[in-house]
Amino acid sequence: MLRYAGFILVATCLAWAPTASANNSATVVEHAFGKATIHGNPARVVSLYQGATDTAVALGIEPVGVVESWTEKPMYRYLRQDLQEVTYLGLETQPDLERIAWLAPDLIVGASNRHRTIYPLLDRIAPTVIPGNVYDFKALLELMAKATGRVARGKELLTQWQARVEDFRARIQRKLGDQWPQEVAILSFRADHARIYYAGFARSVLDELGFSAPATHRKEGWGIKLTSQESIPAMDAEAVFIFMDDDPAVLRTFDTWSSHPLWKNLQAVRQQDVYQVDPVTWNMGAGIIAANRMLDELYRHYNLEQPDLRECAQC
Amino acid sequence: MSRSLVLRSPNDRWSVKLNVRVLLVTLALAVLLAISSVLALASGSHPTSFMDVLGTLANPAQSELALIILEIRLPRVIMAILVGGALGSAGLILQGLVRNPLASPDVIGITSGASAAAVLFLWLGGVTGTSLLLAPVAMGGAFTVALCITALAWQQGISPARLVLVGVGLAAALTAVTTLLLVLSPDSTAMNAYIWLTGSLYASQWHDVTALAPWLVVCWPLALIKLRHLDAQSMGEDMALGLGSALQGHRLLFLVLAVALAGSAVAYAGAVGFIGLIAPHMARRLVTSGHTGLLPIASLIGALILLYADWIGRVAFIPRDLPAGIFVAGIGAPFFVYLLYRLRRDLG
Amino acid sequence: MLTSLLARTSGTLVCLGLLLVATVSSLVFGHIPVSLDMLAASLMDYDPGSLEHLVVRTERFSRTVTALIVGAGLATAGALMQTLTRNPLASPGILGINAGAMFFVVVGATLFSLTSPSELVWAAFTGAATAAFLVYFLGQQAGRGVSPVRTVLAGVAVTALFVSFAQGLLILNQDRFESILFWLAGSVSGRELEAILPLLPLFCLALLIALLLSRQLNLLGLDDDVIRGLGLRVGQVRLLIGLVVIVLAGTSVAIAGLIGFVGLIVPHIARGIFGTDHRWLLPLSAILGATLLLAADTVARLVIPPQEIPVGVMTALLGAPLFLHLARHVRAVS
């Protein structure tokens, strides 16, 4: 009985869904979970993960709804001023479905690693696109540019990024000479363990910029968690980038690990090439704006001059 | 002596004796459940009124709230009822089977089996996260573990004591495996898994309802018919055999029913604990009856507990949606302590 | 089972030998290989520049000491609990003491923002005591004997209670979640010895009290009336032993997180070899417990270097088959 009730309700809802007005510009966007058909240029966009929020802002859209950030609540400082009027939808792990439905968006962007279960529901509310990989900010940019009809703007952002990347590569090669490419490791500290990242947003940006990774870090998987200070040598590289939250327990762990003799033995420590970087842009932003800010930081750490290659107000 | 009602079929071939108090309590609980469901449908992060709900239910095509009420809230409310009911029934059956008032599907390793399978699946699934295969995998885990437990506990039949102890041992090992997988997973998988382990009805959809309902439709009536054999067993094994009960056969059947009900419930709602433990006890506080009479009451109570817990999780911390499992523990724990205090004198 | 004094003494020496082997293994094996002569050199002829010497002196040494203390503490607590409750399946893990300590530590860390180990230890003690009281309370029956199954179930129920509350807190504080995960899984690595030292006197005192009460403990297996007839103050002894258990188990959980099965399996092994005389049982449980935990920790390091399997997981995986074997042979008492 319930089964039939379900079918009847489903059919009714589908029939009720307002048919598109005679706007024949329907874009079909292929994404990780299927195809989305978008009519016209979506004005009301809902973003269900940070990378999408970042990218939407870069494309010049103020989303109607976004999920909360993990730190610097409710939204990371670097995006806050462009998101004054948004509705917050709860945490990325379980966004508030009713609010999303009531916002009546034209487009929803979700994350493949969190929203697979709710994808069918989201798709009934509005055309939903899900990029295949949460770290690949360029693919995300292209996908969202296509879905929102701002392809030209998307291309512009990518060209600017490309130019910046080439500029950085040229300068750092001049600076470091035959020490280029430099082997770098990406580390993070938590309250009870330390991490080495083998893959992810920061790693992919560094790879694109030409940095290399120690041989032991070229493995499958996102990375590893280390609980024993004995494994400190596994972190070794010519230069090390560290990010961590501003939490007393985390800082205490970092102090303990960094005062260990094995830490002082690391090549990067001896050469004083240990850089503490912003956890938000390196680990949580995952969009084009975060990538640009990451690059800003790298220019600073290596004392390279930046030409002003950026015209967009946001980058 | 409680009053009873005897219904006979026209030619006297079938008769059923119904306890009047059981009937009344069941009816009262069912009405309470119906009213609570409608009220729950009317609550949520988006404000809706009672009249809105009735209007949408009556005439979906013309309501702009149809999506919210019929696609988001209604499947979730129905799932809460089904899952809570299944867990309550499974708990009752297990407590009767093991003849111990502190038994529950969690103790017997069903929940840990489903959990280990689910977390393993999430870990292997990696970045792709949860998918529609999660529930069947979890159920497979529950059945496999139940099978292992039965095999390990079988020595010329199932002894309830051994069943429990083997269940506890396997549960501990499986919890270790689950912990290991949590520790090795990337953060998003670990959080998905942890929420599942606490028990959550978030994002329940119609396809979940249509997948869970058949299990209840098959197992629950079967349990209802066969439960009188549990009453026979509680009088002692010899008495049960004398009354014509096929002892081991029935024990096996009850185990299978309990596993099917609890396993399917846990597969869809995650590892919700406590309901299987306390619903049967609350039922016993309301009526004195054999297991057959207790079954509908325990099921309804289980459904009510989960409905309320999910309701609180949905509306108390808007816009955050907290897993129902937390509030089940919140409702369950105080009652549980009271219950154990009372049982000190009754156990024996 | 060894009964003669000679046999028991030789048995003890063998166990001590095993402990020594386990200790040496713990110091030698790991992500950075250390050979035996390097080990000897690091102890006697310390060279701060050598990587291997550093590792042995700092990380491996603290792990070994932690494992020794925690292993001995858990095993002794388990043996005492089994005697106290007359239940062969009692242990700090099964009877909810670990879970109680865990819950109070989670509360301390999330609601009260306690971070220093010494503060968390007191939280763990309180939790262990609360859980112990609850299970004791529930396991009581007016007049009747205590059945193994019922106590185990009470313990499981209490564990479920505390674990679900702790889970709830962790979900409410999702950002704290991944910081506690490793501690919850049980670990002996990275424990600063300076943090553990203040706890040692109390710990040793508890062990000493237990050893001194060995004779009285031998009598606790008898019926209450008989014991009183023999002149033993049952209530006082039980209370004292209860406190000892709380100190031992609470300290172990506070230091190393949730490590199960050591308190359950080791006393059985010790009893199987040396009998139920507590004058032998208690010290040997301590020795064997330390050996088991050291071995588990060493193996845990070698499986997926440089990552480690949490030692609590390792002991569960090793201990569960043994427990199941025991469970199958429990007489059907309901």
Overall description:
- The complex is a heterotrimer of chains A (315), B (348) and C (334).
- Chain A has two domains: 22-150, Rossmann fold, CATH 3.40.50; 181-284, Rossmann fold.
- Helices cover 41% and strands 15% of the residues of chain A.
- Chain A is built from 13 helices and twelve strands.
- Chain A has a five-stranded parallel sheet with strand order 5-4-3-6-7. In chain A, strands 10-9-8-11-12 form a five-stranded mixed sheet. Chain A has a two-stranded antiparallel ribbon with strand order 1-2.
- In chain A, helix 7 packs parallel to helix 13 (288-301).
- The termini of chain A are far apart.
- In chain B, strand 1 and strand 2 (15-19) form a beta hairpin.
- Chain B contains 14 helices and two strands.
- With 348 residues, chain B is an all-alpha fold.
- Chain C is mostly helical.
- Chain C contains 15 helices and no strands.
- The model of chain C has no long low-confidence stretch (mean pLDDT 81).
- Chains in contact: A-B, A-C, B-C.
- At the B-C interface, helix 6, helix 7 and helix 14 of B face helix 6, helix 7 and helix 15 of C.
Q: CATH H level of chain B: which superfamily? A: ABC transporter involved in vitamin B12 uptake, BtuC
The percent range for strand residues of chain A is: 5-15%
Work out the helicity level of chain A: 40-55%
Helix content of chain B: over 70%
Q: How many domain regions of chain A?
A: 2
List keywords for this structure.
heterotrimer, A: about 325 residues, alpha/beta, Rossmann fold, 5-stranded parallel β-sheet, 5-stranded mixed β-sheet, 13 helices, globular, B: about 350 residues, mainly alpha, ABC transporter involved in vitamin B12 uptake, BtuC, two-stranded antiparallel ribbon, 14 helices, about 5% strand
Give the helix/strand layout.
The complex is a heterotrimer of chains A (315), B (348) and C (334).
Chain A lengths: L1 H15 L9 E6 L2 E6 L5 E3 L2 H9 L6 E2 L10 H4 L6 E2 L8 H7 L3 E3 L9 H7 L2 E2 L7 H12 L2 H26 L7 E6 L4 E4 L3 H9 L13 E4 L12 E6 L3 H11 L2 H4 L2 H4 L3 E3 L2 H6 L3 H14 L14
Parallel strand pairs in A: 3-4, 3-6, 4-5, 6-7, 8-11, 11-12
Antiparallel strand pairs in A: 1-2, 8-9, 9-10
Helix pairs in contact in A: 2-6, 6-7, 7-13
Chain B lengths: L3 E5 L6 E5 H22 L8 H9 L7 H33 L11 H16 L8 H20 L6 H25 L2 H12 L7 H21 L1 H7 L2 H6 L4 H23 L5 H12 L4 H25 L8 H23 L2
Antiparallel strand pairs in B: 1-2
Chain C lengths: L4 H24 L7 H9 L6 H34 L12 H14 L6 H23 L8 H25 L1 H12 L7 H4 L3 H13 L1 H6 L4 H6 L4 H23 L5 H13 L3 H26 L7 H18 L6
Helix pairs in contact in C: 1-3, 1-14, 2-3, 3-12, 3-13, 3-14, 4-5, 4-6, 4-12, 5-6, 5-12, 9-12, 13-14, 14-15
